[in-house]
Design brief:
The complex is a heterodimer of chains A (about 80) and B (about 475). Chain A has about 80 residues and is an alpha+beta fold. Chain A is about 30% helix and about 20% strand.
Chain lengths: ~80, ~475
């Protein structure tokens, strides 16, 4: 995800199952746009409306992760 | 009867089902060697059959409403219908952080439940956030504190009044919220003594916390007078909803003049208690206190349901997310399946059951200190020379969960009995028979009961003074 334009990591690795990203558009807008594409992601992070929390679990396949990347590319574009 | 811990059943290398999985990524490359633990976690190693037997047997060492009549006074241990569990599962895959537009059904359910609870209690607005009864109390008292502060009276109003029959959580709540607690004596009829109340009221008082019916199971018949006196003195009236089951559908705390109520969904609204919980303690308020409710509240704009965080006077959040959501689903189910008439009828049956059992126990030789028509519960005493504790332990041996004992504090050797509406007449009669049988038992039998339970009579003093909370490898 951090290879996408408009996405910056908030913290460096290592991390466990979730991580915060700084987005070029407000989190609420991104969460709503992703939800319309059938993906629930970009949870709110206090204090900065451009911060969003993402996570993956063991049930997500590589295809799921790649489709999140494509959806995020679209909604940030 | 010894029962080994799962760790004591563990044998090195013993395994159950071995799942197949894809090769795992190298943890060291992901996290760095410095973040990896040096030794694997100490987990029990058992085969599947040992595991199944261990937890199946543990599940049999229980008493609950599904196995036993459970007349624990002031706890409203009514049956929790299984259909509600199915309903709760329908919502199990929601996440509290997902876009509210994709969780409209959940928000609609919360909004409807707020509306129903407001109607049942006669209040204007409800928060579903508090996690249980005492948490609801704290939320309610913090709302009252914020109200007095807004009016510039918080420095003067430093006292919360509670009757001497109050639930212990009431003075604890007031104290937690930074108030001094003053006790108001009960009169000879078991109700709040109005003269005693008048002596305590004044500009130094922030609130009165009351339960109605009170913990003696008696309806406070002078409640309108209590309410008038409180409000004339600028004091807020707080309703502890622990005993709402007695009056649901018949009388509303809001109509009695209460300004704040909390409800125990895990009592009155058939949500499981404790281990089957979590609990849920919504708080309802009158209009003048609505601005202080915790954030977020659920509101409806047009056809859309929203989480409203924009409430500048709010006391803030009192719990993560929006309350014990699956408990809310079960309470919503309860209200919808019973309907208004059903709720009324359940309260009526709760009162009928309590009064029938009161008369049965009186016949068996138990004393009833406030012997009049009770509400959903009543307080009994064993005959002179018997201890409430021995009766309670003897009941366990005879297959019944004991009532609440030694509470309320104003009755010696109190047995506080609440049968609830979901028990059949035969169960009440069997319980009364058992209570009678206990009075015929030899003294030493009673003093040493129970006999056939996984553990016998516990040393409660040692359990409090020197509890063993840690397991060490043998």
């Amino acid at each position: 995800l951090i290879q996408l334009p408009g996405v910056k990591p908030l913290t460096r690795p290592p991390f466990f199952t979730e991580f915060a990203l700084l987005l070029s558009k407000p989190q609420g807008e991104i969460r709503e746009a992703l939800a319309r594409r059938g993906i629930h992601a970009a949870a709110p992070v206090p204090f900065d409306p451009h911060l969003a929390l993402f996570s993956a679990t063991e049930i997500h396949t590589e295809e799921d992760l790649l489709s999140l990347r494509e959806a995020l590319r679209e909604v940030l574009g | 009867m010894s029962f080994p811990l799962i760790f004591e059943r563990s044998r090195p290398g013993r395994r159950g089902f071995r799942p197949t999985h894809e090769p795992l990524p190298e943890a060291e490359a992901l996290f760095g060697a410095e973040h990896l633990r040096k030794r694997p976690p100490r987990l029990p190693e058992v085969d599947e059959l040992t595991l199944v037997r261990h937890y199946t047997l543990l599940s049999h060492r229980q008493a609950g409403v599904d196995t036993t009549f459970y007349p624990l006074g002031s706890c409203t241990m009514k049956y929790n219908p299984k259909a509600y569990e199915e309903a709760a599962w329908l919502f199990a895959h929601l996440h509290p952080y997902q876009d509210p537009k994709t969780a409209q059904g959940a928000l609609e359910l919360m909004w409807e439940l707020q509306t129903y609870l407001a109607e049942i209690t006669g209040m204007d607005a409800v928060t579903l956030q508090p996690a249980a009864g005492a948490h609801g109390e704290l939320t309610g008292i913090l709302i009252i504190r914020a109200y007095h502060k807004d009016r510039g009276e918080d420095k003067a109003r430093r006292v919360v009044l509670v009757p001497d029959s109050a639930h212990g959580s009431n003075p604890a709540t007031a104290s937690m919220a930074g108030y001094q607690v003053r006790e108001v004596a009960s009169g000879p009829d078991g109700e709040v003594d109005l003269e005693a109340l008048k002596r305590e009221l004044g500009p130094h008082v922030a609130a009165i916390m009351l339960t109605n019916p009170n913990t003696l199971g008696l309806f406070e018949q002078r409640i309108l007078e209590v309410s008038r006196l409180a409000h004339e003195a600028g004091v807020q009236l707080y309703y502890d909803g622990a005993n709402l089951n007695a009056i649901m559908g018949w009388a509303r705390p809001g109509d009695m003049g209460f300004d704040v109520v909390h409800l125990n969904l895990h009592k009155t609204f058939a949500v499981p208690h404790g281990g089957g919980g979590p609990g849920s303690g919504p708080v309802g308020v009158k209009r003048h206190l609505e601005p202080y409710l915790p954030v977020p509240t659920v509101k409806k704009e047009g056809e859309e349901f929203l989480l409203d965080f924009d409430r500048p006077k709010s006391i803030g959040r009192v719990r993560s997310f929006y309350g014990s959501f699956l408990a809310l689903v079960r309470a919503w189910m309860y209200i919808r399946m019973l309907g208004g008439e059903g709720l009324r009828q359940s309260a009526a049956l709760a009162v009928l059951n309590a009064n029938y059992l009161r008369l049965l126990l009186k016949e068996k030789g138990y004393r009833i200190p406030y012997d009049r028509l009770s509400m959903h519960e009543f307080v009994a005493q064993p005959p002179e020379g018997f201890k409430a504790l021995d009766i309670a332990k003897g009941l366990i041996e005879l297959g019944f969960h004991p009532p609440t004992v030694y509470f309320p504090l104003i009755v010696k050797e109190a047995l506080m009995i609440e049968p609830t509406e979901t028990e059949a007449k035969e169960t009440l009669e069997a319980f009364a028979e058992a209570m009678g049988e206990l009075l015929e038992k030899p003294k030493d039998w009673l003093e040493n009961a129970p006999y056939s339970t996984p553990v016998r009579r516990l040393d409660e003093v040692q359990a409090n003074r020197a509890p063993k909370l840690t397991h060490f490898e043998p």
